[in-house]
């Protein structure tokens, strides 16, 4: 081969090699390893988990009478809910089973259990102190005493479904003679997923029946008189239960034809020919169960209507 051509070829190869080295250095000065890249990147926000969601007793005298005779007579602010959203479970302290906490296991020896979560037992000293001065009279007039003693009352613990279809604890105080009835009734309601917004002791409302009704609280014992009279209510003997009272109001009729509706705000539920949730009528499971256990229903009274109210007489 011609020496000139050989020299020219070697020079060309050298130039190519030099160019490649220079390019490699330039690239390496402006590059980083995968580890270095990851170190310099901001941490990515976690992807949202698609399974997570964002965050006044009212018994009429001709239908009920008072305790001196043989015929002695459980939602927040606005209730219109958006169809796109589900109502959150109430976060107030009334959800806490105060009676269960105060009784603890102190009455375990005398507890009668129907099924898990459904039991009745006497009131502990702590629970007696809690209700005295609220739902139970603290200082009756001299020479008088309550027509029911604390020994005749029993604490009833139940389970129920709330308006979101979630199981909740509930509690009532009642006359010991109907404790078994209530256990069986509320157990059947629970088995059928019947919804009760809340079932709390009336003491959580300072014994205020109107406040309890407005909060749609299902309740039983409260030593008080019938609204507008001096006669004791059946609730005062622990022999009456009010069920979902906001949706099943108490109606009285005036001589001018007007109607009084209690609780306040429940006017939309006074028309019992209308269809709406939580309405108690004779076809309702709750009504059937109470009637089967010997209770009478305020919705069948004549001079007034108390659609939330069930009461029982002792033989």
List keywords for this structure.
three-stranded antiparallel β-sheet, 315 residues, 23% helix, alpha+beta, 12 strands
Explained architecture:
- This protein is of the alpha+beta class.
- 23% of the residues lie in helices and 16% in strands.
- It is built from seven helices and twelve strands.
- A four-stranded antiparallel β-sheet has the order 1-2-3-4. A three-stranded antiparallel β-sheet has the order 7-12-10, covered by helices on one side. A three-stranded antiparallel β-sheet has the order 9-8-11, with no helix packed on it.
- The chain starts with a helix and ends with a strand.
- Residues 23-57, 60-66 and 68-91 have low confidence and may be disordered.
Uncertain runs: 23-57, 60-66, 68-91
Mean pLDDT: 80
- The gross shape turns out to be elongated
Count of strand segments: 12
Widest sheet: strand ordering: 1-2-3-4
Rg over alpha carbons: 35 Å
DSSP strand content: 15-25%
Give the helix/strand class.
alpha+beta
Instruction: Please report the distance between the alpha carbons of the first and last residues.
Output: 133 Å
Largest sheet, in brief, is: 4 strands, antiparallel
Number of helices: 7
Chain-wise SSE layout:
Blueprint lengths: L2 H27 L4 H7 L57 H6 L8 E4 L2 E5 L2 H7 L21 E9 L5 E9 L3 H13 L6 E2 L9 H6 L2 E2 L21 E3 L7 E4 L5 E4 L22 H8 L3 E2 L6 E3 L2 E3 L4
Helix pairs in contact: 5-7
Could you write a compact summary of the structure shown?
23% of the residues lie in helices and 16% in strands. It is an alpha+beta fold and 315 residues long. It has a four-stranded antiparallel β-sheet. Strands 7-12-10 form a three-stranded antiparallel β-sheet, covered by helices on one side.
